[in-house]
TrEMBL record:
GO molecular function, a single term: dihydrolipoyl dehydrogenase (NADH) activity
Enzyme Commission (EC) number: 1.8.1.4
Pfam families recorded: Pyr_redox_2, Pyr_redox_dim
Chain positions recorded as FAD binding sites: K88, G152, T181, G182, S183, D351, M357, L358, A359, H360
Listed name of the protein: Dihydrolipoyl dehydrogenase
Keyword Cytoplasm: no
Catalytic residues (UniProt): H483
InterPro entries to which the protein is assigned, alphabetical: Class-I_Pyr_Nuc-Dis_Oxidored, FAD/NAD-bd_sf, FAD/NAD-binding_dom, FAD/NAD-linked_Rdtase_dimer_sf, Lipoamide_DH, Pyr_nuc-diS_OxRdtase, Pyr_nucl-diS_OxRdtase_dimer, Pyr_OxRdtase_I_AS
Cofactor: how and how many bound: Binds 1 FAD per subunit.
Species name: Nicotiana sylvestris
Length: 504
């Protein structure tokens, strides 16, 4: 059965009305590269992260003369240089080591010993980053995007002053300016990040040795991923979180299973706990903690502390106040549905505007923004942006959580299928997790999908496509899936949503 008439009608309505928003966590930065950018451009992009470089390439592809300004000296922003890419490299490498230690023997692969070569692991990570940053420069050349390396700030709605990496200054002119400067690490009062013993995610990606004890402040995506890396390599990891739950945006039922999975990997959690102070006077680090609601204080010792309390938009020092660009209390630039600020000719995308701080969301923002500038129509629906935690198992989701559906007062049905009943998962001896689908009771339209499994970040995209086109759970259930595959669990969960699964 193809998409039902009702679902098609809803999808058509959705496609005609949706637009977008975005938040790119990628850096801005500037200095002379391929051209000075002194001639007037159709588009000037401040920031060369996922949102910025994608916007620049798309603008050039649409025939607009484009210059991109990036301060870091390498393209890709936080994501590619000190975020998404290096963290996934270390997650994969550390997972391979952990598997060699704990799982290979079950598959008949035995050897006398296995050890970590941390410098080699870091070198592999750095090689991946270097290759990808050079690849983006190649794409700029291919698409004739001018690249200026340096720190830029607005002089007017059509002029950007750039202090270049070479120590010079140049002014880049543009009819339209897109701010894509991304976000920065959120600091905590009384805690100074030195990237040695008190580190941000940047420092956690470059530790020179494996800490015996690692304390992670914050139980969000980044903290859990980096905690997983060092936990697999031998660190004793304790996660301190002020809130009552880890990853508060995650579906509650899935979150509980996820926490149990991490605890089985010996990750410890101290929830509803406040960090009062951090003392670095001795050889190690001493954290003074107390219950979030108040109470007796305790001391927690660590070799390294990772501060992972979130990110904040990078909008200071850009000259926004000089030209009157409106921001909210959090420092985010306020834009309309076309990504335009209150100042004509000045646009913003990614992490510097409201919305999820995700690289792929920033990319969609960038494409849509320049499409609007070029006189076309751009579309981004933030309800359709998937989120992934790249631990093992991974957790991926799109759409509404069960808590959100309940709060909307919608009558709904839930379908679930455990990977313990999936033949491929059992065959590879990696069957922890489940698929959970939420669908509107009357129409069967899918409202949200949540997956906890190996490679959940890959499996989620079938669900993203289904939600994008207003599909029902029956649509997925009646679609043939190859056997044996992990994706069959999604089909079975869909069957459980509208009727009954076969293999459970």
């Amino acid at each position: 059965m193809a998409i039902s008439t009702l679902a098609r009608r809803k999808a058509t309505t959705f496609l005609s009305s949706r637009f977008l928003y975005s938040t790119s966590k990628y850096s801005f930065s500037l200095t002379r590269g391929y051209a000075s950018g002194s001639d007037e451009n159709d588009v000037v992009v401040i920031g060369g992260g996922p949102g910025g470089y994608v916007a620049a390439i798309k603008a050039a592809q649409l025939g607009l003369k484009t210059t991109c300004i990036e301060k870091r000296g390498t393209l890709g922003g936080t994501c590619l240089n000190v975020g998404c890419i290096p963290s996934k490299a270390l997650l994969h490498s550390s997972h391979m080591f952990h598997e060699a230690q704990h799982s290979f023997a079950n598959h008949g692969v035995k050897f006398s010993s296995v050890e970590v070569d941390l410098p080699a692991m870091m070198a592999q990570k750095d090689k991946a980053v270097s290759n990808l940053t050079r690849g983006i420069e190649g794409l700029f050349k291919k698409n004739k995007v001018n690249y200026v390396k340096g720190y830029g700030k607005l002089l007017s709605p059509s002029e950007v002053s750039v202090d270049t990496i070479d120590g010079d200054n140049t002014v880049v002119n543009g009819k339209n300016i897109i701010i894509a400067t991304g976000s920065d690490v959120k600091s905590l009062p009384g805690i100074t990040i030195d990237e040695k013993r008190i580190v941000s995610s940047t420092g956690a990606l470059a530790l020179g040795e494996i800490p015996k004890k690692l304390v992670v402040i914050g139980a969000g995506y980044i903290g859990l991923e980096m905690g997983s890396v060092w936990g697999r390599l031998g660190s004793e990891v304790t996660v301190v979180e002020f809130a009552a739950d880890i990853v508060p945006t995650m579906d509650g039922e899935v979150r509980k299973q996820f926490q149990r999975a991490l605890e089985k990997q010996k990750m410890k959690f101290m929830l509803k706990t406040k960090v009062v102070s951090v003392d670095t006077a001795g050889d190690g680090v001493k954290l003074t903690l107390e219950p979030a609601s108040g109470g007796d204080q305790t001391i927690l010792e660590a070799d390294v502390v990772l501060v992972s309390a979130g990110r904040v938009p990078f909008t200071s020092g850009l000259g926004l106040d000089k030209i009157g660009v409106e921001t909210d209390k959090a420092g985010r630039i306020l834009v309309n549905k076309r990504f335009a600020s209150n100042v004509p000719g000045v646009y913003a995308i990614g992490d510097v505007i409201p919305g999820p701080m995700l690289a792929h969301k920033a990319e969609e923002d960038g494409v849509a923004c320049v499409e609007f500038i070029a006189g076309k129509e751009g579309h981004v629906d933030y309800d359709m942006v998937p989120g992934v935690v790249y631990t093992h198992p991974e957790v991926a989701s799109v759409g509404k959580t069960e808590e959100q559906v309940k709060s909307l007062g919608v009558d709904y049905r839930v379908g679930k299928f455990p990977f313990l009943a999936n033949s491929r998962a059992k065959a590879i001896d990696d069957a922890e997790g489940l698929v959970k689908i939420l669908a509107e009771k009357e129409s069967d339209k899918i409202l949200g999908v949540h997956i906890m499994s190996p490679n959940a970040g890959e499996l989620i995209h079938e669900a993203v496509l289904a939600l994008q086109y207003g599909a029902s759970s029956e649509d997925i259930a009646r679609t043939c899936h190859a056997h044996p595959t992990m994706s069959e669990a999604l089909k079975e969960a869909a069957m459980a949503t509208y009727d009954k699964p076969i293999h459970m």
